Amino acid sequence: MMDALSVVCQLRDLASEPQNRAVIVQDQGCLPGLVLFLDHQYPEVLFATLQTLRYLAELPPNVPIMKNELGMMVSLENLIRRDGLSLDITALAKEVYGILREPTNPAPRTPEREKRRKPQFFINSTNKKAKSVTLHIQGLDSTNQRSLCEEALLKVKGVISFTFQMASKRCTVRIRSDLPTESLATAIASTKVLSAQQVVKNEAGDEVYVPLNSSGVQVPQNSALPDYLPEEEESPEREVDKAISRTAAKEDSSGNWLNAAASFLTKTFYW
Asked: Is 129 in contact with 90 (CB distance < 8 Å)?
């Protein structure tokens, strides 16, 4: 049984993989559904929706389609002006809105222009660029190990968000640019049962694992845990594995899941 949070979280996980972004935007149901989610009452749904839109906007051909989607810009404007939301949600809404407002064919960027405009897909920080890190986590075999990993990452100050790909034992973590990647490895190693290596591409375009020093690295601690990351019960391992199986599958497979999501959106919102 689908609900709004599970649908948008799975869309976000799919959108985090570059090969899925064009398919999601071209689907007749998903983009209109994301626009409707921008008016949702629950902050968790709003934040996951904005994360999804931010991922989708990283593919340049998607930007004009998203901008011209009925209600997209108006909903983002309303969200920016909406009272009672966290600074995290407002900041991310402003960033997505700014990206979509960019000219379709902007002037070539000079170093000075690049210095003035930088992405700000991050939490509780200003003028700092965020980065994504993909980790291969040895020992990530069950829900219990995943919970341990989540708890460890949530304690690291500078971690913005993360998504798991349980089938491949990977975790994609979005962090502030000034946070050393080794801090993630140290935090994960503190579980005593998990260890992490960074996944990168070499000059030939092949993925390789890079060992990370997990000893002697100071890990900045969060004084309070953020409330915007999905809870385990909201996004069970079984559902995540379903989403990830679509990520690695062919386009028609992804289309089947997207059709199911679109059907849910239609039954929920259209009358």
From this structure: no
Between CA 224 and CA 174 the distance in angstroms is 18
Is the pLDDT at 50 greater than 90? The verdict is yes
The sign one gets for the Cα dihedral 123, 201, 211, 136 is: positive
Whether the Cβ atoms of residue 38 and residue 75 lie closer than 8 Å to each other: yes
| Backbone torsions φ then ψ of 151, nearest 5 degrees | -60, -40
**Cβ neighbours for 52, distance < 8 A, ≥ 6 positions apart:** 8, 11, 12, 15, 34
One DSSP character per residue, 201-233 reads E-TTS-EEEEE---SS---PBPSS--S-SPPTT
- By CB atoms closer than 10 A (0-12, 13-18, 19+), residue 178 is exposed
Q: What is the mean pLDDT of residues 169-184?
A: 87
CA–CA gap between residue 66 and residue 50 (Å, rounded): 12
pLDDT averaged over every residue in the chain: 76
* Segment among 17-31, 77-91, 198-212, 221-235 with least mean pLDDT: 221-235
The DSSP bridge partners found for residue 171 are 135, 164
- Rounded CA separation 186/172 (Å): 16
Indicate if the pLDDT at residue 264 is higher than 70: no
Residues 6+ apart with CB under 8 A from 191: 145, 148, 149, 152
Alpha carbon separation from 211 to 78, 123, 186, 196, 200 (Å, rounded): 45, 28, 12, 8, 11
Instruction: Report the candidate in 178, 245, 210 with the shortest Cα–Cα distance to residue 13.
Output: 245
Q: What is the mean predicted confidence (pLDDT) over 4-25?
A: 87
The model carries a pTM of 0.46
- Taking CA atoms, 221 is separated from 128, 142, 148, in Å, by 19, 26, 16
